[in-house]
Amino acid sequence: MAICDALEQWWGTEGCYRGCAQVDAAVEITDADHPAIAAITRHKAHLRQRLTELTREAGAAEPEQTAADIVVIYEGTITALLLQLVPEPLQRARRLTTELLPTDDRR
Questions:
Q1: How far is the C-alpha of 78 from the C-alpha of 59, rounded, in Å?
Q2: Alpha-helix runs per DSSP H in the chain
């Protein structure tokens, strides 16, 4: 759940002003071959790789799939926060992420 904690902390400081800087940059760059696109892609891939490692350590049956789901929750939460799309997006993200991870009872 550290990703939800980190997102909440980031949002409370600088995130609320702009959303995700990598997504902002990707939207503004129209050249798919621009070096910044590769850097952004590496950053997002690193996030997914790290989440895969963490979900594997947590005992997820399908760590790659679970990590991919959490990436979607994470990215969607940033957008929901920025645009105020739904009530309590951080709490929703935490609930959804928790439901994806095994508990001691489910292992």
A1: 26
A2: 2-10, 16-18, 21-28, 35-57, 63-83, 89-100
**Residue 75 token pair:** 């990215």
Terminal Cα distance for the chain, rounded: 18
Using alpha carbons only, what angle is made at residue 16 by residues 38 and 34, rounded to the nearest 5 degrees? 15
- What are 19-27's contacts with CB under 8 Å, separation 24+? 19/78, 19/79, 19/81, 19/82, 20/75, 20/78, 23/75, 23/78
Give 48's contacts (C-beta < 8 A, 6+ positions apart).
67, 68, 71
pLDDT cut 90: percent of the chain above it: 63
The mean pLDDT value for 33-47 works out to 94
